[in-house]
Structures are given as C-alpha cells and as structure tokens.
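Inverse folding, one chain.
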C-alpha cells in the first residue's frame, strides 16, 4: 500500500456553529459529471456528526508551504479559535474553507459508507471550488516521504 501515492488534505465541516477539521490522506475523484469526490475519514471523530447533520464538508488541498497546517491538523481541531488562528472563510454549504490552502472543494454529502472498523467514507458532490493559490505545488505522500508536484 505504501507504493500507492496519496495526498495531504484537510477536511472541514460545520453544523450549528460547531466547526471541525482534520488532516487526511485519502481523497479520490469519483466522477466528472456530476463532479464528485470521496474522502476517507477516521472513525470516532467529532467531525462525523457534523458531516452527517450538515450534509456537507470541504476538502482543502495543501501545498509545500502548508507544512505548519499538516502539523496543526494532524489531530482533529474543533474550536473556532483553532480555525481562526489559521484563517478561514465560510463556504456556501457552511463548511470552513482554509485561507492558506491551494484550493478548497465545497461538497454536499450524497453518500456515506460505513467501512468497518476504522473508517467512514463520504462521497460529496462538488458545489464550488475556491482557488486560493493556483501556482502553488501540491503535496503527495509516497511511503514515508512527502513530495511536491506542480
């Protein structure tokens, strides 16, 4: 499995004034029309009910200059102060969009799959794409190493 590349993304969601964000590696394009992507999120996070109840989430793509964010979000963050410290705006769906991300995909939840025992898989239809830094190099993980790609 270590030979299959993955990326570094921060998944966010919010419901009734509560925000959460966490670093994930597993995001995949599902379809082009309608535009959909899937994201695997570790089970047991506070984010789970936020995605379920809001029916929305955002996927924020990171670049090489976001190494601080990869450390900061390695564990789930739940408070507005945590997100305020890194800067965010609110998406159409209500999910936080990180200002420092290369791009953010604002998604409406269309499917939730319970992949036992450790992972929840969410499929979202992309409602908007926010490009903050189109010239930045994104991060890809292969094995234990992180690489930049254009």
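Residues assigned per position:
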């Amino acid at each position: 499995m270590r030979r299959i590349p993955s990326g570094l993304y921060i998944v966010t969601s919010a419901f009734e004034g509560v925000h959460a964000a966490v670093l994930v590696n597993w995001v995949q394009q599902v379809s082009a029309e309608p535009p959909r992507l899937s994201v695997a999120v570790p089970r047991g996070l506070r984010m789970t009910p936020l995605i379920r109840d809001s029916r929305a989430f955002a996927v924020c793509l990171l670049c090489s200059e976001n190494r601080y964010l990869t450390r900061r979000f390695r564990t789930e963050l739940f408070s507005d102060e945590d997100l305020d410290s890194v800067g965010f705006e609110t998406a159409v769906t209500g999910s936080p969009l990180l200002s420092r991300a290369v791009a953010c995909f604002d998604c409406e939840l269309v499917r939730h799959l319970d992949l036992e025992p450790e992972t929840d898989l969410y499929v979202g239809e992309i409602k908007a794409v926010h490009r903050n830094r189109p010239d930045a190099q994104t991060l890809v993980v292969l094995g234990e190493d992180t690489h930049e790609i254009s």
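The two ends are 23 Å apart (CA to CA). The first helix runs from residue 47 to 54.
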